[in-house]
């Protein structure tokens, strides 16, 4: 285990990239070793990190940092050991295999490597699906949920950082699914709501202030990409779970309201115990417990996933509420947890 | 049928009261006959309507209107035929029976008279439940949903104007429930989200801007007062439906995401037909149809309830989305519809 | 004077266009005569008005309205007498002269024809400035502020509808400037704040929800296009007035805080009288008076310009606050006032 | 100089108190020495810090912290050396003299001790003004603006932490006023806009979401309490400066737009140099410089005050824009700067 390593970030222009930059610049194990920031140099444009993200200006030296044109030579020269890909999934499909060839470990924030089953991957329409190289790399990919795959992540060459919605739902459901207490014939309903940063930085009709503000809209009913992650990580089939995302008029934060039915009557303390046991060694999950439902404002701008539940008087119907910040626990923060595990550091280093 | 009548409004200080005042002041059948506005005179306070609601100032004469101290004599003297109660439910329990005694018809915006079953009313903890007078008045009360009870409303002495959440859910579900196509054993999930005006005008920790803004929170899980209306109007029992309200960071608007399962496979056009048939004569429901989901911004500041749905490929699981403005179709606007029906006017008069 | 006429709107896709469509569809003098909506037909696109603006769907017949491809023949065929241009200023420079040739009166919502002095027009960089045709048309243009130019508007062939910021500032200042009571050597400061709809519908980095929400930013300091309107309509020179626009995190509304100094000590009632006298015949200005400052929420979604002021104890320094809805009094609503004047109808018809 | 000390906070229930708690709990010199949190114990209420502020829950031990009933004995017992008063100004007037008697240094976040001139203090209506004790304590009070009074703060017994608006304006103006370059006869206009947290946590009509959202309003024109700070710290008299606060529909952040006139023509680089020189040793001021205006979103949730300006072509009229987070640089963050100075630590410790 090394005290520090050299990291690099490809694709720092988006919201998750900016958060990742901020976290890495202030990470206690990376003091004095800022990441190599990589991107496309646009002619005539200021390539400084702080021109792109003025909120990253501080008096700790960020002012001098540049976004440099990507090349494998540069990574080698700088001794990069872990490369974060904050790139669209098509690009991540291209770069991850090459990085592994160059013996650089990868933490990919896109959906490129999260899904082991071809059926689930179909939604992404990857050109390269089926090639031998891709299949080999896919095999190496570990789903980067520390609470579910802590040990595999430590040794992983390629970590597929989970989706934001998927994280909120999987963490809310996994202890109940794993314990076998759910009546899956009744179905699980996941009604999720996300802030606008989840829709990305590219200006569009849907991210226009006039569309998003004072509004609420459903999108991707029965068709959102994160469904595959839910199925694979929870071991469910499509008939057992429905997931509906909504666009909230707030900058950041996800709240998932999850409706389940227990096979047999449970008491609040039994359900509470299932959660506390499952997350006993997980510093980044906060259990609010029975009757204490988390809200978006508690977890936003933190790396926590907050979980609470309300049990009906019948002891069988239960509403689980799971909240997190889509750019932190749902993206950049969880990526740093994965870095910490891969380096043998404290899972929560640089995240509190 | 008269061309015009004299109305009165008791309790104009809240948000629904203000909207009701605005609608009645601009109603084509009430031109030149502004409502008698009634309330408690607070010593030393400006009793003009526009001091209370500066947004009601216009050049049509609202400037001179006063809020007058309530008395039955005053109502008689002014020849009031219909009294709107925009009062807390305890007060509505008190005033409605007296109004009927004075042969004044009542449209009550509170929850006081909506529920015919004592079990459902228990949540309101009415002191007077069980008294003979109350029971007699309760029998006269008609649930003021024009789409469900148009004919009874025309002749009603007492109309219990529906709850805002209840309206959005009942209108979204009734055509499916009435057609007997739902698999009720699978349960119905109603995940509803409302703007802050639904929480009332009294300043509180939960209506503070700092609590509501940039946030989303669940409240009243398994315990919200509107549940009784759902059960009675849809003919369901508690085991068949779950309803969860959320507080949205917007001023007004409700979106209910409703999850149902059909007993047998349906096509989108079959479902669409059920809705169009049911609402054929209803000017205030807009059917968006299959794959076209309404959003809060389309119905807000209108009196419409917008309904759309998305059917899963399996033809059985279906997400219904129902939107309305909680202060209009969910309160003051629906009250005006009821006035229109009671007076034999066009159901949509003054609402477009 | 005719009871009704045929109108047309070119460029209905933006926010002001949508408001204009709504106002004209509900205008009492235009019942049964919807405007001809004109635009570019994009191949394969739904050309119905309500596909573009779902909030315009109602049960009054808007459902059948189409956006038709523009041609002068079509306008002639339909007997169009007044054409609204809700187009970018370059297009308005092109279409207005042609409309006048076709003997169609024009109300232009852009900045194309508002400025009589070439110096002030320079900011728009018009290609055609200096041509004889343009100069002739410019001479005919009347600045469409009913409060300032009511009589000229009645007979105008071409009305240049004022800018939104300009309207709020000109109406706030004109009574004081006209009365000659200001110490112009001390300078006038106009600190204006506008909601995001003022920035237009085209998605951009600045209209992205993540940029606008929870933020406030200055733009166009010392360089905003509306300065020319202030100078010409108020008869000031650049050294006497500063105007700074800010982008507010709200959908609509403008508040201008205007700082002036009186040449001599005034009492609040003297200042109040100046305003009330000046706006005596103006139905669309509401004087809040001394110590009663308007807020954005009072005028938004109305066609009023609200004006109040606070006088310092010294009787010389005064803060004038002027509020309006940038899409109504600041654009489409004022355009309808101009239509009303041009047709000899009540100035406020269709606006309350 | 000690490496660490024991602190205490009285009045942790408000927004500034919560931010102060968060900062102190994570301060590098206070690791393992959480502040003593003091308040009124309300019978039957959970006295844990995290019950009051759920967002403070983390895995660093905050869970066990209690709010303890205030007593001087407790402070003595715990060895408290610095007491933060996050109390209303009346309480701060009472507690600060007693603390000094107990030889405990005080950082007071209220307006109680900021003003040396009785005229300026009149706005607070202090009962005790004029008493000998109060006068003696007032003499000891240092205005806690590190950029202006760094050296006096180091040795101060009582630091009066500046007001939020005052900080944004004083820091924006001081370099220009100190350099004597302003034409004060033309007057300085400070048009300031603040988020809702500045209005405090007590629910009221003005902090209701429905009032603040989608709105902008002026308050306290010519009468805001912070005026006295501006006059004393900038050495101006009332005739030379106007300050107008506005309530912005955002949770936090202040932007002040400040209008000044130079006595003689200046170039942008000359103005820039004045700022850079003045703040050369100040880590918490970021100079954006000529033509680069800060926005609220850049400084919010940081302890920076961001300053930029735009100079008119005439070289004399200048708009200065100053932004900060009202709860950090405008309250709790600046209080921690003062703690750092009083303890001989790095001025920015615990603030980046």
Q: Indicate the overall shape of chain A.
A: globular
How are the strands of the largest sheet of chain A arranged?
3-2-1-4-5-7-6
Derived structural class of chain A:
alpha/beta
> How many individual β-strands of chain A?
14
The CATH homologous superfamily of the largest domain in chain A is named NAD(P)-binding Rossmann-like Domain
Average pLDDT level of chain A: 94
Oligomer: homotetramer
* Level-2 CATH architecture of the largest domain in chain A: 3-Layer(aba) Sandwich
The CATH topology name of the largest domain in chain A reads Rossmann fold
- When the domains of chain A are counted, the total is 2
Sequence stretches where pLDDT stays below 50 over 5 or more residues of chain A: none
- CATH top level assignment of the largest domain in chain A: Alpha Beta
Q: Per DSSP, what share of the residues of chain A sits in E-state strands of 2 or more residues?
A: 15-25%
Number of helices of chain A: 13
Of all chain pairs, the largest interface belongs to:
A-B, 39 and 39 residues
Computed over alpha carbons, the radius of gyration of chain A is 20 Å
User: What profile does the largest beta sheet of chain A have?
Assistant: 7 strands, parallel
């Amino acid at each position: 285990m090394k005290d520090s390593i050299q990291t690099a970030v490809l694709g720092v222009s988006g919201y998750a990239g900016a958060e990742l930059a901020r976290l890495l610049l202030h990470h206690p194990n990376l003091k004095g070793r800022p990441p190599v920031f990589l991107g496309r140099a646009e002619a005539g444009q200021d390539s400084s990190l702080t021109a792109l993200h003025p909120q990253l200006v501080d008096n700790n030296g960020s002012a001098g940092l540049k976004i440099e044109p990507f090349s494998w030579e540069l990574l080698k020269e700088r001794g990069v050991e872990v490369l974060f890909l904050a790139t669209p999934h098509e690009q991540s499909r291209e770069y991850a295999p090459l990085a592994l060839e160059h013996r650089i470990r990868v933490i990919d924030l896109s959906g490129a490597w999260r899904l082991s089953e071809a059926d689930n991957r179909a939604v992404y329409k990857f050109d390269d699906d089926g090639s031998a190289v891709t299949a080999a790399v896919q095999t190496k990919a570990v789903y980067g949920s520390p609470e579910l795959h802590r040990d595999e992540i430590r040794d992983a060459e390629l970590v597929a950082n989970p989706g934001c919605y998927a994280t909120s739902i999987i963490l809310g459901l996994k202890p109940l699914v794993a314990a076998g207490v759910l009546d899956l014939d009744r179905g699980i309903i996941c009604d999720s709501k996300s802030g606008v940063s989840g829709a990305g930085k590219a200006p569009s009709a849907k991210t226009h202030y006039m569309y998003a503000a004072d509004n609420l809209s459903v999108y991707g009913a029965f068709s959102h990409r994160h469904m595959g992650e839910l199925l694979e990580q929870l071991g469910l089939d499509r008939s057992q779970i429905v997931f509906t995302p909504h666009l909230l008029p707030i900058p950041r934060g996800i709240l998932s309201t999850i409706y389940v039915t227990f096979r047999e009557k449970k008491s609040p303390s039994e359900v509470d115990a299932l959660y506390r046991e499952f997350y006993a060694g997980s510093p980044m999950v906060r259990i609010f417990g029975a009757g204490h439902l988390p809200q978006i404002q508690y977890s936003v701008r933190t790396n926590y996933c907050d979980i609470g539940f309300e049990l009906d008087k019948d002891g069988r119907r239960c509403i689980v509420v799971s909240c997190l910040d889509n750019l932190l626990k749902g993206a950049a923060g969880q990526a740093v947890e994965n870095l910490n595990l891969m380096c043998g550091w404290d899972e929560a280093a640089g995240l509190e």
